[in-house]
Amino acid sequence: MKPGANPLVGELPFPAAAERELPRAQLRLNLQRATHTIRDKRSRVVDEVPDWEELRAAGSAIKTDVLARMPELLTRFEAAATAAGAQVHWARDATEACAVVTRLVREAGADEVVKVKSMATQEIGLNEALAAAGIAAVETDLAELIVQLADDTPSHILVPAIHYNRREIRDIFRERMAGADPALGDEPAALAEAARQHLRAKFLAAKVAISGANFAVADTGTLVVLESEGNGRMCLTLPETLISVVGIEKLVPTFADLEVFLQLLPRSSTGERMNPYTSMWTGVTPGDGPQTVHVVLVDNGRTATLADPVGRQALHCIRCSACLNVCPVYERVGGHAYGSVYPGPIGAILSPQLTGVAANRSLPFASTLCGACYDVCPVRINIPEVLVHLRQAAVDDQRGRPSPERTAMRATAWLMRDRRRYARALRAARAATAPLAGVLRGRPVRRLPWPMSAWTATRDAPLPARESFREWWARNRGES
Protein backbone atom coordinates (compact mmCIF):
# COMPACT_ATOMS: atom_id res chain seq x y z
CA MET A 1 0.00 0.00 0.00
CA LYS A 2 1.32 3.45 -0.89
CA PRO A 3 2.08 5.84 2.00
CA GLY A 4 -0.96 7.94 2.84
CA ALA A 5 -3.36 5.69 0.92
CA ASN A 6 -6.66 4.72 2.53
CA PRO A 7 -6.71 0.92 3.06
CA LEU A 8 -10.47 0.98 2.45
CA VAL A 9 -10.31 2.74 -0.94
CA GLY A 10 -8.66 1.39 -4.09
CA GLU A 11 -6.63 3.36 -6.60
CA LEU A 12 -9.04 2.28 -9.36
CA PRO A 13 -12.82 1.84 -9.41
CA PHE A 14 -13.89 -1.80 -9.28
CA PRO A 15 -14.63 -2.24 -13.04
CA ALA A 16 -11.16 -1.03 -14.01
CA ALA A 17 -9.44 -3.05 -11.27
CA ALA A 18 -11.42 -6.18 -12.19
CA GLU A 19 -10.46 -5.80 -15.86
CA ARG A 20 -6.82 -5.65 -14.75
CA GLU A 21 -7.12 -8.88 -12.72
CA LEU A 22 -9.23 -10.97 -15.11
CA PRO A 23 -6.43 -11.92 -17.57
CA ARG A 24 -4.44 -13.58 -14.73
CA ALA A 25 -5.23 -17.21 -15.45
CA GLN A 26 -3.09 -18.56 -12.60
CA LEU A 27 -4.89 -16.27 -10.15
CA ARG A 28 -8.28 -17.60 -11.21
CA LEU A 29 -7.04 -21.18 -10.93
CA ASN A 30 -5.64 -20.57 -7.43
CA LEU A 31 -8.87 -18.91 -6.31
CA GLN A 32 -11.10 -21.59 -7.75
CA ARG A 33 -9.20 -24.41 -6.06
CA ALA A 34 -9.02 -22.69 -2.68
CA THR A 35 -12.56 -21.33 -2.48
CA HIS A 36 -14.15 -24.58 -3.64
CA THR A 37 -12.12 -26.56 -1.10
CA ILE A 38 -13.12 -24.30 1.79
CA ARG A 39 -16.78 -24.07 0.88
CA ASP A 40 -17.07 -27.83 0.40
CA LYS A 41 -15.60 -28.39 3.88
CA ARG A 42 -17.98 -25.80 5.31
CA SER A 43 -20.97 -27.47 3.70
CA ARG A 44 -20.10 -30.84 5.23
CA VAL A 45 -19.66 -29.62 8.81
CA VAL A 46 -22.70 -27.34 8.67
CA ASP A 47 -24.86 -30.26 7.56
CA GLU A 48 -23.89 -32.04 10.77
CA VAL A 49 -25.64 -29.41 12.92
CA PRO A 50 -29.40 -30.03 13.14
CA ASP A 51 -30.17 -26.55 14.50
CA TRP A 52 -27.88 -24.56 12.18
CA GLU A 53 -30.60 -22.14 11.08
CA GLU A 54 -31.57 -21.55 14.70
CA LEU A 55 -27.91 -20.80 15.50
CA ARG A 56 -27.79 -18.32 12.61
CA ALA A 57 -30.91 -16.61 13.91
CA ALA A 58 -29.47 -16.48 17.44
CA GLY A 59 -26.21 -14.95 16.18
CA SER A 60 -28.12 -12.34 14.22
CA ALA A 61 -30.32 -11.52 17.21
CA ILE A 62 -27.32 -11.06 19.51
CA LYS A 63 -25.67 -8.72 17.01
CA THR A 64 -28.90 -6.75 16.56
CA ASP A 65 -29.07 -6.34 20.33
CA VAL A 66 -25.46 -5.12 20.43
CA LEU A 67 -26.15 -2.44 17.83
CA ALA A 68 -29.25 -1.31 19.71
CA ARG A 69 -27.30 -0.92 22.97
CA MET A 70 -23.86 0.04 21.70
CA PRO A 71 -23.14 3.02 24.05
CA GLU A 72 -24.26 1.07 27.13
CA LEU A 73 -22.24 -2.03 26.22
CA LEU A 74 -19.10 -0.05 25.38
CA THR A 75 -19.23 1.69 28.75
CA ARG A 76 -19.76 -1.65 30.48
CA PHE A 77 -16.80 -3.19 28.63
CA GLU A 78 -14.53 -0.28 29.51
CA ALA A 79 -15.44 -0.53 33.19
CA ALA A 80 -14.92 -4.29 33.34
CA ALA A 81 -11.62 -4.23 31.41
CA THR A 82 -10.26 -1.36 33.50
CA ALA A 83 -11.21 -3.13 36.73
CA ALA A 84 -9.25 -6.17 35.48
CA GLY A 85 -6.10 -4.07 34.94
CA ALA A 86 -6.34 -3.18 31.25
CA GLN A 87 -6.04 0.38 29.96
CA VAL A 88 -8.78 1.33 27.51
CA HIS A 89 -8.24 3.96 24.80
CA TRP A 90 -10.77 5.42 22.35
CA ALA A 91 -10.08 6.30 18.71
CA ARG A 92 -12.51 8.11 16.44
CA ASP A 93 -10.70 7.22 13.23
CA ALA A 94 -7.66 5.50 11.76
CA THR A 95 -5.36 8.45 12.39
CA GLU A 96 -6.16 8.56 16.09
CA ALA A 97 -5.89 4.78 16.45
CA CYS A 98 -2.47 4.65 14.77
CA ALA A 99 -1.24 7.58 16.90
CA VAL A 100 -2.35 5.83 20.11
CA VAL A 101 -0.67 2.53 19.21
CA THR A 102 2.53 4.23 18.03
CA ARG A 103 2.74 6.16 21.32
CA LEU A 104 2.19 3.00 23.37
CA VAL A 105 4.91 1.09 21.49
CA ARG A 106 7.38 3.93 21.97
CA GLU A 107 6.55 4.11 25.68
CA ALA A 108 7.33 0.41 25.93
CA GLY A 109 10.77 1.10 24.44
CA ALA A 110 10.32 -1.21 21.43
CA ASP A 111 11.34 -0.75 17.81
CA GLU A 112 9.80 -4.04 16.65
CA VAL A 113 6.44 -5.66 17.41
CA VAL A 114 4.92 -9.04 16.62
CA LYS A 115 1.35 -9.12 15.35
CA VAL A 116 -1.58 -11.48 15.45
CA LYS A 117 -3.62 -11.46 12.23
CA SER A 118 -6.01 -8.54 12.53
CA MET A 119 -8.40 -6.97 10.02
CA ALA A 120 -8.80 -3.90 12.23
CA THR A 121 -5.09 -3.08 12.10
CA GLN A 122 -5.12 -3.52 8.33
CA GLU A 123 -8.16 -1.27 8.08
CA ILE A 124 -6.38 1.59 9.86
CA GLY A 125 -3.05 1.07 8.03
CA LEU A 126 -1.20 0.39 11.29
CA ASN A 127 1.85 -1.34 9.81
CA GLU A 128 2.53 1.62 7.55
CA ALA A 129 2.06 4.09 10.41
CA LEU A 130 4.47 2.13 12.61
CA ALA A 131 7.02 1.92 9.79
CA ALA A 132 6.86 5.69 9.38
CA ALA A 133 7.71 5.97 13.07
CA GLY A 134 10.67 3.61 12.72
CA ILE A 135 8.91 0.60 14.22
CA ALA A 136 8.92 -2.75 12.40
CA ALA A 137 5.72 -4.81 12.56
CA VAL A 138 6.21 -8.55 11.98
CA GLU A 139 3.16 -10.51 10.85
CA THR A 140 3.18 -13.94 12.49
CA ASP A 141 0.21 -15.56 10.75
CA LEU A 142 1.67 -17.71 7.96
CA ALA A 143 -0.48 -16.27 5.19
CA GLU A 144 0.02 -12.71 6.44
CA LEU A 145 3.77 -13.33 6.59
CA ILE A 146 3.73 -14.49 2.96
CA VAL A 147 1.92 -11.36 1.87
CA GLN A 148 4.20 -9.13 3.94
CA LEU A 149 7.37 -10.71 2.55
CA ALA A 150 6.01 -10.33 -0.99
CA ASP A 151 5.35 -6.62 -0.32
CA ASP A 152 1.77 -7.36 -1.33
CA THR A 153 -1.65 -6.81 0.20
CA PRO A 154 -4.09 -9.51 1.39
CA SER A 155 -6.74 -10.70 -1.06
CA HIS A 156 -8.96 -12.70 1.31
CA ILE A 157 -10.24 -12.08 4.83
CA LEU A 158 -9.40 -15.51 6.20
CA VAL A 159 -6.65 -16.66 3.80
CA PRO A 160 -4.74 -13.48 2.87
CA ALA A 161 -2.37 -15.36 0.54
CA ILE A 162 -5.10 -17.30 -1.26
CA HIS A 163 -3.90 -15.87 -4.59
CA TYR A 164 -0.53 -17.65 -4.30
CA ASN A 165 0.21 -21.31 -4.96
CA ARG A 166 2.91 -23.18 -3.06
CA ARG A 167 5.56 -22.75 -5.77
CA GLU A 168 5.09 -19.00 -5.67
CA ILE A 169 5.31 -19.09 -1.86
CA ARG A 170 8.55 -21.09 -2.06
CA ASP A 171 10.04 -18.45 -4.34
CA ILE A 172 8.98 -15.65 -1.98
CA PHE A 173 10.58 -17.41 1.00
CA ARG A 174 13.80 -18.09 -0.89
CA GLU A 175 14.14 -14.49 -2.03
CA ARG A 176 12.73 -12.50 0.89
CA MET A 177 12.90 -14.44 4.17
CA ALA A 178 16.10 -14.00 6.16
CA GLY A 179 17.89 -17.29 6.73
CA ALA A 180 15.76 -19.29 4.28
CA ASP A 181 17.44 -22.30 2.68
CA PRO A 182 18.18 -21.53 -1.00
CA ALA A 183 17.20 -25.14 -1.76
CA LEU A 184 13.86 -24.88 0.07
CA GLY A 185 11.22 -27.04 -1.60
CA ASP A 186 7.54 -26.34 -2.12
CA GLU A 187 6.15 -29.06 0.16
CA PRO A 188 3.67 -27.50 2.64
CA ALA A 189 5.46 -29.04 5.63
CA ALA A 190 8.81 -27.61 4.50
CA LEU A 191 7.34 -24.15 3.94
CA ALA A 192 5.64 -24.19 7.35
CA GLU A 193 8.87 -25.28 9.06
CA ALA A 194 10.82 -22.50 7.35
CA ALA A 195 8.29 -19.93 8.59
CA ARG A 196 8.35 -21.48 12.08
CA GLN A 197 12.11 -21.16 12.34
CA HIS A 198 12.00 -17.59 11.08
CA LEU A 199 9.29 -16.54 13.54
CA ARG A 200 10.54 -18.35 16.65
CA ALA A 201 13.34 -15.83 17.19
CA LYS A 202 10.85 -12.99 16.72
CA PHE A 203 8.49 -14.39 19.35
CA LEU A 204 11.21 -14.88 21.93
CA ALA A 205 12.69 -11.40 21.47
CA ALA A 206 9.45 -9.40 21.27
CA LYS A 207 8.65 -6.93 24.05
CA VAL A 208 5.36 -5.78 22.47
CA ALA A 209 2.62 -7.65 20.63
CA ILE A 210 -0.36 -6.26 18.76
CA SER A 211 -3.60 -8.13 18.23
CA GLY A 212 -7.16 -7.62 17.19
CA ALA A 213 -10.11 -9.48 18.67
CA ASN A 214 -12.88 -11.63 17.28
CA PHE A 215 -15.13 -10.80 20.23
CA ALA A 216 -15.14 -8.46 23.23
CA VAL A 217 -17.36 -9.45 26.16
CA ALA A 218 -19.04 -6.40 27.71
CA ASP A 219 -19.86 -7.99 31.07
CA THR A 220 -16.34 -9.23 31.85
CA GLY A 221 -13.98 -7.09 29.73
CA THR A 222 -12.69 -10.28 28.08
CA LEU A 223 -11.14 -10.32 24.61
CA VAL A 224 -11.23 -13.42 22.41
CA VAL A 225 -9.01 -14.42 19.48
CA LEU A 226 -9.62 -17.52 17.33
CA GLU A 227 -6.77 -18.86 15.19
CA SER A 228 -5.41 -22.05 13.67
CA GLU A 229 -1.61 -21.97 13.94
CA GLY A 230 -0.66 -21.11 17.52
CA ASN A 231 1.18 -17.95 16.50
CA GLY A 232 -1.56 -15.92 18.15
CA ARG A 233 -1.12 -17.77 21.44
CA MET A 234 2.62 -16.96 21.32
CA CYS A 235 1.94 -13.26 20.74
CA LEU A 236 -0.71 -13.10 23.45
CA THR A 237 1.38 -14.72 26.17
CA LEU A 238 5.13 -14.07 25.67
CA PRO A 239 5.58 -10.27 25.31
CA GLU A 240 5.57 -7.87 28.24
CA THR A 241 3.07 -5.50 26.61
CA LEU A 242 -0.05 -6.41 24.63
CA ILE A 243 -1.99 -3.87 22.57
CA SER A 244 -5.34 -4.97 21.14
CA VAL A 245 -7.03 -2.92 18.42
CA VAL A 246 -10.76 -3.66 18.44
CA GLY A 247 -13.63 -2.37 16.31
CA ILE A 248 -16.50 -1.25 18.54
CA GLU A 249 -18.91 -3.65 16.81
CA LYS A 250 -17.00 -6.71 18.10
CA LEU A 251 -18.93 -6.60 21.37
CA VAL A 252 -21.12 -9.37 22.72
CA PRO A 253 -23.14 -8.63 25.86
CA THR A 254 -22.34 -11.69 27.99
CA PHE A 255 -19.83 -14.53 28.21
CA ALA A 256 -22.64 -17.01 27.50
CA ASP A 257 -23.16 -15.40 24.06
CA LEU A 258 -19.83 -16.86 22.96
CA GLU A 259 -21.48 -20.28 22.91
CA VAL A 260 -23.34 -19.30 19.75
CA PHE A 261 -20.43 -17.69 17.92
CA LEU A 262 -17.89 -20.39 18.79
CA GLN A 263 -20.14 -22.79 16.89
CA LEU A 264 -20.87 -20.47 13.96
CA LEU A 265 -17.44 -19.03 13.24
CA PRO A 266 -15.17 -22.12 12.85
CA ARG A 267 -17.66 -23.94 10.62
CA SER A 268 -18.24 -20.87 8.44
CA SER A 269 -14.60 -19.84 8.13
CA THR A 270 -12.31 -22.87 7.93
CA GLY A 271 -14.90 -25.65 7.75
CA GLU A 272 -13.85 -26.98 11.16
CA ARG A 273 -16.07 -28.10 14.03
CA MET A 274 -13.93 -26.02 16.36
CA ASN A 275 -10.84 -23.92 15.80
CA PRO A 276 -7.49 -25.23 17.07
CA TYR A 277 -6.71 -22.22 19.30
CA THR A 278 -9.19 -20.08 21.24
CA SER A 279 -7.38 -17.51 23.39
CA MET A 280 -9.20 -15.40 25.97
CA TRP A 281 -7.74 -12.81 28.30
CA THR A 282 -9.21 -10.35 30.76
CA GLY A 283 -6.94 -7.50 31.78
CA VAL A 284 -3.72 -8.42 33.59
CA THR A 285 -2.93 -11.57 35.59
CA PRO A 286 0.05 -10.93 37.91
CA GLY A 287 2.98 -13.16 37.00
CA ASP A 288 1.26 -14.68 33.96
CA GLY A 289 1.35 -13.24 30.46
CA PRO A 290 1.68 -9.59 29.50
CA GLN A 291 1.81 -7.28 32.51
CA THR A 292 0.73 -4.22 30.55
CA VAL A 293 -2.46 -4.62 28.52
CA HIS A 294 -4.02 -1.92 26.35
CA VAL A 295 -7.30 -2.02 24.43
CA VAL A 296 -7.86 0.52 21.64
CA LEU A 297 -11.55 0.79 20.73
CA VAL A 298 -11.89 2.03 17.15
CA ASP A 299 -14.88 3.72 15.51
CA ASN A 300 -13.55 4.67 12.04
CA GLY A 301 -16.96 5.02 10.37
CA ARG A 302 -18.87 2.47 12.42
CA THR A 303 -21.06 5.04 14.16
CA ALA A 304 -22.06 6.48 10.78
CA THR A 305 -22.86 2.97 9.56
CA LEU A 306 -24.93 2.34 12.68
CA ALA A 307 -27.11 5.33 11.77
CA ASP A 308 -28.33 3.60 8.58
CA PRO A 309 -31.30 1.32 9.41
CA VAL A 310 -30.63 -0.89 6.35
CA GLY A 311 -26.86 -0.74 6.08
CA ARG A 312 -26.09 -1.25 9.76
CA GLN A 313 -26.51 -5.01 9.44
CA ALA A 314 -23.04 -5.03 7.86
CA LEU A 315 -21.76 -4.50 11.42
CA HIS A 316 -23.03 -7.99 12.30
CA CYS A 317 -20.07 -9.41 10.36
CA ILE A 318 -17.83 -11.81 12.30
CA ARG A 319 -15.19 -11.91 9.51
CA CYS A 320 -15.71 -15.57 8.60
CA SER A 321 -15.28 -14.94 4.83
CA ALA A 322 -17.94 -17.54 3.87
CA CYS A 323 -19.47 -15.00 1.48
CA LEU A 324 -16.17 -14.68 -0.42
CA ASN A 325 -15.92 -18.42 -0.93
CA VAL A 326 -19.29 -18.67 -2.71
CA CYS A 327 -19.17 -15.41 -4.67
CA PRO A 328 -18.84 -15.89 -8.46
CA VAL A 329 -17.45 -12.38 -8.85
CA TYR A 330 -14.75 -12.78 -6.19
CA GLU A 331 -13.75 -16.17 -7.59
CA ARG A 332 -12.90 -14.62 -10.94
CA VAL A 333 -11.21 -11.36 -10.00
CA GLY A 334 -9.81 -11.93 -6.49
CA GLY A 335 -9.60 -9.60 -3.55
CA HIS A 336 -7.30 -6.95 -4.98
CA ALA A 337 -9.94 -5.82 -7.46
CA TYR A 338 -12.01 -4.46 -4.56
CA GLY A 339 -9.25 -2.08 -3.52
CA SER A 340 -10.12 -2.48 0.17
CA VAL A 341 -8.82 -4.67 2.97
CA TYR A 342 -12.40 -6.00 3.05
CA PRO A 343 -12.92 -7.74 -0.31
CA GLY A 344 -15.81 -9.77 -1.66
CA PRO A 345 -19.51 -9.31 -0.91
CA ILE A 346 -19.03 -8.12 2.69
CA GLY A 347 -16.42 -5.62 1.52
CA ALA A 348 -18.82 -4.35 -1.14
CA ILE A 349 -21.23 -3.26 1.60
CA LEU A 350 -18.90 -2.53 4.52
CA SER A 351 -16.21 -0.43 2.83
CA PRO A 352 -18.60 2.11 1.24
CA GLN A 353 -20.28 2.66 4.58
CA LEU A 354 -17.08 3.08 6.56
CA THR A 355 -15.70 5.58 4.04
CA GLY A 356 -18.92 7.14 2.75
CA VAL A 357 -20.49 5.95 -0.49
CA ALA A 358 -18.88 8.71 -2.56
CA ALA A 359 -15.39 7.31 -1.90
CA ASN A 360 -16.36 3.76 -2.90
CA ARG A 361 -19.18 4.32 -5.37
CA SER A 362 -18.39 1.35 -7.62
CA LEU A 363 -18.23 -1.38 -4.95
CA PRO A 364 -21.99 -1.86 -4.42
CA PHE A 365 -22.18 -2.77 -8.12
CA ALA A 366 -19.51 -5.50 -7.78
CA SER A 367 -22.12 -8.24 -7.49
CA THR A 368 -24.55 -10.29 -9.53
CA LEU A 369 -27.08 -10.19 -6.64
CA CYS A 370 -27.28 -13.99 -6.84
CA GLY A 371 -27.87 -14.21 -3.08
CA ALA A 372 -25.37 -16.99 -2.34
CA CYS A 373 -23.64 -14.74 0.20
CA TYR A 374 -26.87 -14.34 2.19
CA ASP A 375 -27.46 -18.08 2.19
CA VAL A 376 -24.10 -18.87 3.82
CA CYS A 377 -23.73 -15.88 6.16
CA PRO A 378 -23.66 -17.27 9.73
CA VAL A 379 -25.27 -14.12 11.14
CA ARG A 380 -27.81 -13.68 8.33
CA ILE A 381 -26.56 -10.41 6.84
CA ASN A 382 -28.81 -9.73 3.87
CA ILE A 383 -25.97 -8.58 1.64
CA PRO A 384 -28.07 -8.32 -1.56
CA GLU A 385 -30.53 -6.03 0.23
CA VAL A 386 -27.73 -3.75 1.42
CA LEU A 387 -26.10 -3.76 -2.03
CA VAL A 388 -29.31 -2.52 -3.65
CA HIS A 389 -29.70 0.05 -0.87
CA LEU A 390 -26.16 1.35 -1.43
CA ARG A 391 -26.60 1.39 -5.20
CA GLN A 392 -29.51 3.75 -4.67
CA ALA A 393 -27.34 5.87 -2.40
CA ALA A 394 -24.62 5.98 -5.08
CA VAL A 395 -27.15 7.14 -7.68
CA ASP A 396 -28.62 9.71 -5.30
CA ASP A 397 -25.14 11.06 -4.62
CA GLN A 398 -24.79 11.88 -8.32
CA ARG A 399 -28.16 13.59 -8.76
CA GLY A 400 -27.91 17.07 -10.16
CA ARG A 401 -24.49 16.49 -11.71
CA PRO A 402 -24.01 16.31 -15.50
CA SER A 403 -24.00 12.73 -16.70
CA PRO A 404 -24.03 11.29 -20.25
CA GLU A 405 -25.97 8.29 -18.95
CA ARG A 406 -28.60 10.47 -17.31
CA THR A 407 -28.91 12.55 -20.48
CA ALA A 408 -29.40 9.39 -22.55
CA MET A 409 -32.00 8.03 -20.13
CA ARG A 410 -33.92 11.33 -20.19
CA ALA A 411 -33.93 11.29 -23.99
CA THR A 412 -35.16 7.69 -23.98
CA ALA A 413 -37.87 8.55 -21.46
CA TRP A 414 -39.03 11.43 -23.68
CA LEU A 415 -39.26 9.07 -26.67
CA MET A 416 -41.15 6.39 -24.78
CA ARG A 417 -43.70 8.74 -23.24
CA ASP A 418 -45.49 8.99 -26.58
CA ARG A 419 -46.44 5.82 -28.49
CA ARG A 420 -46.29 7.38 -31.95
CA ARG A 421 -43.00 9.10 -31.19
CA TYR A 422 -41.53 5.81 -29.98
CA ALA A 423 -42.74 3.97 -33.10
CA ARG A 424 -41.16 6.58 -35.36
CA ALA A 425 -37.88 6.29 -33.44
CA LEU A 426 -37.87 2.50 -33.88
CA ARG A 427 -38.46 2.80 -37.62
CA ALA A 428 -35.66 5.36 -37.88
CA ALA A 429 -33.29 3.09 -35.90
CA ARG A 430 -34.08 0.14 -38.19
CA ALA A 431 -33.50 2.22 -41.26
CA ALA A 432 -30.20 3.54 -39.93
CA THR A 433 -28.90 0.09 -39.00
CA ALA A 434 -30.21 -1.82 -42.03
CA PRO A 435 -26.83 -1.83 -43.84
CA LEU A 436 -25.14 -3.05 -40.65
CA ALA A 437 -27.75 -5.79 -40.17
CA GLY A 438 -26.89 -7.21 -43.56
CA VAL A 439 -23.22 -7.44 -42.65
CA LEU A 440 -23.72 -8.91 -39.16
CA ARG A 441 -26.46 -11.39 -40.21
CA GLY A 442 -28.12 -11.52 -36.80
CA ARG A 443 -24.99 -11.30 -34.67
CA PRO A 444 -24.89 -8.61 -31.95
CA VAL A 445 -22.77 -5.48 -32.15
CA ARG A 446 -19.60 -5.94 -30.07
CA ARG A 447 -18.40 -2.31 -30.15
CA LEU A 448 -20.33 0.89 -30.62
CA PRO A 449 -18.72 4.30 -31.27
CA TRP A 450 -18.60 6.97 -28.57
CA PRO A 451 -20.68 7.83 -26.57
CA MET A 452 -22.35 4.39 -26.68
CA SER A 453 -18.95 2.72 -26.35
CA ALA A 454 -19.43 2.72 -22.56
CA TRP A 455 -22.37 0.34 -23.02
CA THR A 456 -20.51 -2.16 -25.21
CA ALA A 457 -17.39 -2.09 -23.02
CA THR A 458 -18.98 -4.85 -20.92
CA ARG A 459 -21.88 -6.17 -23.03
CA ASP A 460 -23.03 -6.68 -26.60
CA ALA A 461 -25.66 -4.43 -28.21
CA PRO A 462 -28.45 -6.14 -30.17
CA LEU A 463 -29.65 -4.52 -33.37
CA PRO A 464 -33.25 -3.27 -33.51
CA ALA A 465 -35.72 -6.02 -34.41
CA ARG A 466 -36.85 -6.11 -38.02
CA GLU A 467 -40.42 -5.67 -36.81
CA SER A 468 -41.84 -4.37 -33.54
CA PHE A 469 -44.49 -6.28 -31.60
CA ARG A 470 -47.07 -3.59 -32.38
CA GLU A 471 -46.32 -3.89 -36.12
CA TRP A 472 -46.55 -7.68 -35.94
CA TRP A 473 -49.89 -7.40 -34.12
CA ALA A 474 -51.27 -4.97 -36.70
CA ARG A 475 -50.12 -7.18 -39.57
CA ASN A 476 -51.48 -10.44 -38.13
CA ARG A 477 -54.60 -9.22 -36.31
CA GLY A 478 -55.50 -6.24 -38.39
CA GLU A 479 -55.61 -4.01 -35.31
CA SER A 480 -53.50 -0.97 -34.59
UniProtKB/TrEMBL annotation:
Residue span(s) of domain 4Fe-4S ferredoxin-type: 314-381
InterPro entries given in the database record: 4Fe4S_Fe-S-bd (IPR017896), 4Fe4S_Fe_S_CS (IPR017900), FTHF_cligase-like_sf (IPR024185), Helical_ferredxn (IPR009051), LUD_dom (IPR003741), LutB/LldF (IPR004452), LutB_C (IPR024569), NagB/RpiA_transferase-like (IPR037171)
Gene3D superfamilies: Alpha-helical ferredoxin, NagB/RpiA/CoA transferase-like
Keyword line: 4Fe-4S, Electron transport, Iron, Iron-sulfur, Metal-binding, Repeat, Transport
Residue ranges occupied by any LUD domain in the UniProt entry: 75-298
TM region(s), chain numbering: none
Keyword Oxidoreductase recorded: no
Keyword Thylakoid: no
UniProt cross-references to PROSITE patterns, sorted A to Z: 4FE4S_FER_1
Domain Lactate utilization protein B C-terminal intervals: 396-475
NCBIfam families, alphabetized: LutB/LldF family L-lactate oxidation iron-sulfur protein
Listed name of the protein: L-lactate dehydrogenase complex protein LldF
Species of the source: Micromonospora purpureochromogenes
